[in-house]
Design a protein that fits this description.
about 50% helix, alpha/beta, Glutaredoxin, 6 helices, two-stranded antiparallel ribbon
Length: about 150
């Protein structure tokens, strides 16, 4: 019975941990859903442009977008979506139907990854920026954007 109890406790702990980890990442929405939700409630959309081969993107995914302060800030203030710049998928980008890569480079004029865009509730870009951040740098920058305006 001792082994069965230990196994049951281990299973419960693993489920709790995986549920907690999944909740931290649950703020990401599909891009199209984020745009629809924004048009309904007026919140802006935060978009991360990433690539699987991008090391800083992976570091931010592991260390920044799992940080409780970052998650809370994004959940409270934005609809958030991630787009893979290598995807051939066509999306609505600033009112034009473009591939994710063309949206990133040509329409948003982002020069690298990770790249970010803040869109108004109608899907129009109001701010774009690139670069890797630590969690504290990201929160500081985003708070400045939120409370001092969208000017760089």
């Amino acid at each position: 019975m001792g082994n069965m109890l230990r196994r049951a406790i281990l299973v419960v702990l693993l489920l709790a941990i995986s549920s907690f980890a999944a909740d931290k990442l649950s703020f990401w929405e599909q891009y199209g859903e984020a745009l629809k939700n924004a048009s309904r409630d007026g919140k802006p959309v935060f978009v991360e442009f990433y690539a699987d081969w991008c090391v800083p993107c992976r570091v931010m995914e592991a260390n920044v977008f799992t940080d409780s302060a970052v998650v809370a800030l994004l959940k409270e203030n934005f609809h958030s979506a991630r787009l893979d710049v290598d995807s051939k998928k066509q999306i609505l980008c600033d009112g034009k139907k473009l591939s994710v890569g063309k949206c990133h480079l040509e329409q948003m004029k982002l020069k690298g990854v990770p790249g970010f865009a803040i869109l108004d509730s109608k899907g129009k870009a109001i701010l774009t920026f690139t670069g890797a951040f630590s969690a504290s740098e990201f929160v500081k920058f985003m708070n400045k954007v939120l409370y001092e305006g969208f000017d760089e």
